[in-house]
Amino acid sequence: MAEPQERDLPSLEDEIFAVAHSVEVEQAAHAHPLLQTERAQVAAERARAFLGRDVKALAAGMAAFVFVDAVMMYPPLMMSRRPSLMPQFVTLLVLAFGLGGLLVWRVGGRWRTFGIGMMLAWGLLTLLSVGFLTGVTAPL
C-alpha cells in the first residue's frame, strides 16, 4: 500500500483539475496604476492644441487665396467679351506657389501651414472649377 508520505503529496489529477483557492496579487500593482491618466490627458490636450492651431492656419491660408482669387477672377469672367486670362493665371500661380513655397521652406512656423493652405486652395479651385477660377483653361 501507499506510504503516509505519498498520501500528503497531491496527485497529478489534483494538480491538473484543482481550483485555486487563493489568488496571488503583486503588491506593485496597487502602488501605480497601469494607465497614467494625468500624463495621457496632458498629451491629448497638447495634441488637440497643436492640431487646432495647424488646422486654423491651413484654413486661413486657403481662405486668403480664395479671397484673392475671387477678387482677381470675378471681373474677367463676368465680362461679355472676355480678355486673356494669362495675367491672372501667372499672378495666382506666383501667389500660391511662389509666396506659399517661400512661407513653407524659408519662414516656417505656423506660416508653413498657411503656405500649404494657399497651395492646396489653388489645386482645389483648379480641380473643382475645371481651371476656370485659376485661369488654367480659357472660358467658353
Write up this protein.
This protein has helices at 4-8, 12-17, 28-31, 37-78, 86-107, 110-128. With 140 residues, the protein is mainly alpha-helical. Helix 4 packs across helix 6. The mean pLDDT is 80.
State the low-pLDDT regions, or none.
none
Note the run of SSEs as H and E. HHHHHH
Q: What is the percent of helical residues?
A: over 70%
Overall geometry: rod-shaped
Strand content: under 5%
Radius of gyration: 34 Å
Q: Can you count the helices?
A: 6
**Biggest β-sheet strands, sense, barrel:** none
Strand count: 0
Mean residue pLDDT? 80
N-to-C span? 109 Å
Structural class: mainly alpha
Question: What is the compact description of this entry?
Answer:
This protein has 140 residues and is mainly alpha-helical. The protein is built from 6 helices and no strands.
Write the layout of secondary structure elements.
Elements: H1 4-8, H2 12-17, H3 28-31, H4 37-78, H5 86-107, H6 110-128
Write a concise keyword list for the protein shown above.
70% helix, 6 helices, 140 residues, rod-shaped
